[in-house]
Design goal:
By secondary structure, this protein is an alpha/beta fold. Helices cover 39% and strands 19% of the residues. The protein starts with a helix and ends in a 12-residue tail after the last strand. Helix 1 packs antiparallel against helix 4, helix 1 (3-17) runs antiparallel to helix 5 (122-130) and helix 8 (221-235) crosses helix 9. It has helices at 3-17, 64-75, 77-80, 93-105, 122-130, 159-173, 190-200, 221-235, 247-259, 274-282, 293-309, and strands at 37-38, 53-58, 83-88, 110-113, 134-138, 153-157, 179-183, 209-214, 241-244, 266-271, 287-290, 313-314, 316-319, 322-325. It folds into two domains: 3-156 and 292-319, Rossmann fold, CATH 3.40.50.2300; 159-291 and 325-331, Response regulator (Rossmann fold, 3-Layer(aba) Sandwich), CATH 3.40.50. The strands form three sheets. A six-stranded parallel sheet has the order 3-2-4-5-6-13, with helices on both faces. Strands 8-7-9-10-11-14 form a six-stranded mixed sheet, with helices on both faces.
Length: 337
């Protein structure tokens, strides 16, 4: 049975199985760049002379980080020798599972997926891999006891490090410690889980007192604003700092703080996008922990090309963050997204 037929079958049945793995937990490991060498089980060959097809499956194309990633995949297509297209997971785990099947049906040789749900996506990726597709995970990792059954490689930022850097940034402002609240990233997202872990598991001995943590259902500015409003109602002037898992969420935190006349609260975000960059520049945000999204895309395509060629490649790829504050912001280019 060829990939297209399998893909059509997957697209019909995976919607109901997409959430089967939801609710699983996994102890987050200390992140290091690893070099687990592996080879594809079966080298992908195109006998018709066409370029291999790489499909980027975005988590949600209403998220500007996903739009930028899609743009970079397209811009680097010729350099790495791929025909590239993008499909949209629309911020919904079930829809994204169906989209994985659609990608297989469209004849994808490689898919690079940014999962909306780190465990819920596993069954659809396992099915795609069984259909002969090389499966890469972008900007995240999946949650599975046997991830190698569902993906060939992943490329992501070092999210454990991201949580640790948030502590360092707060301590720069409050070296003796202070009261902190945490606005987490999208519930169930691997990046959010690891950022939370890197933050909460390294608080001992810092003097930082975590008053509360809360996760939104989406990476949505409005939800971050609402969560911050709730925390302000509960804790008020006790709050000295906020760690928000993403810069556009920090925008909502800042708005809520200004409405409550609490403009001296330190806000730390992650992404290094235009919003975070501008908020740091303006002094509304103390630091943005910056991701080089173009570097993530390039590594994905580099590893995918090696997999296509049947060469050895690293299955686990972690990219370090940069810390941007007002002290060094002029050393970094204005982000495109």
């Amino acid at each position: 049975m060829n990939k297209k037929i399998l893909g059509l079958m997957l697209a019909m049945i995976l919607g109901t199985s997409a959430l089967a793995g939801c609710g699983k937990t996994e102890e987050a490991k200390e992140a290091e760049v690893k070099t687990e060498e592996t080879k594809t089980e079966e080298k992908v060959e195109n006998t018709d002379g066409e370029l291999p097809k790489l499909i980027f499956i975005a988590g949600d194309m209403s998220n500007e980080s996903q739009v930028f990633a899609s743009k970079m995949f397209t811009e680097h297509a010729e350099e790495y020798g791929f025909e590239v297209s993008t499909l949209d997971g629309r911020g919904d785990p079930q829809i994204q599972a169906q989209v994985v099947g659609n990608a297989v049906a469209q004849g994808a040789d490689v898919i690079c997926v940014n999962p909306n749900d780190a465990s819920g996506i596993v069954p659809s990726l396992e099915a795609a891999k069984k259909a002969g597709v090389i499966v890469g995970v972008y900007g995240s990792e999946i949650m599975s006891d046997t991830p190698e059954k569902a993906r060939d490689f992943y490329v992501t930022q070092d999210d454990i490090q991201g949580g640790k850097l948030a502590i360092e940034a707060i301590l720069e402002k409050y070296p003796s410690g202070c009261n902190v609240v945490e606005v987490e990233g999208q519930a169930g997202h691997d990046a959010a889980i690891k950022r939370h872990t890197g933050f909460t598991e390294n608080l001992d001995g810092t003097g930082l007192n975590l008053l509360a943590s809360m996760a939104p259902t989406q990476w949505a500015t409005a939800e971050a604003l609402s969560i911050t409003e709730d925390m302000i109602v509960k804790y008020g002037d006790e709050i000295d700092a906020i760690f928000c898992h993403w810069d556009n969420g920090a925008t909502g935190c800042i708005e809520a703080l200004k409405a409550a006349n609490m403009e001296d609260v330190v806000v730390i975000g992650i992404d290094g996008c235009q919003a975070g960059y501008n908020q740091v520049k303006a002094g509304d945000q103390y630091a943005t922990i910056s991701i080089d999204a173009d570097k993530l895309v390039r590594r994905c395509m580099e590893v995918a090309r090696k997999a296509i060629n049947g060469e050895e490649y690293s299955a686990e790829n972690l990219i370090a963050f940069d810390m941007i504050t007002q002290n060094n912001i002029d050393e970094f280019p204005v982000p495109e997204w």
